[in-house]
Amino acid sequence: MTKEDILIRRAERQDVPLLLDFIRGIARYEKMENEVIASAK
Q: What pTM was computed for the model?
């Protein structure tokens, strides 16, 4: 992967489920999943 392969942009509404998956994954790794209170609504 090169820097030309990476695109940084503002998050959009359709990105919310993916962002929540990332957040929950990090919380699971840190054994803090019970601290995440969020929904994609």
A: 0.74
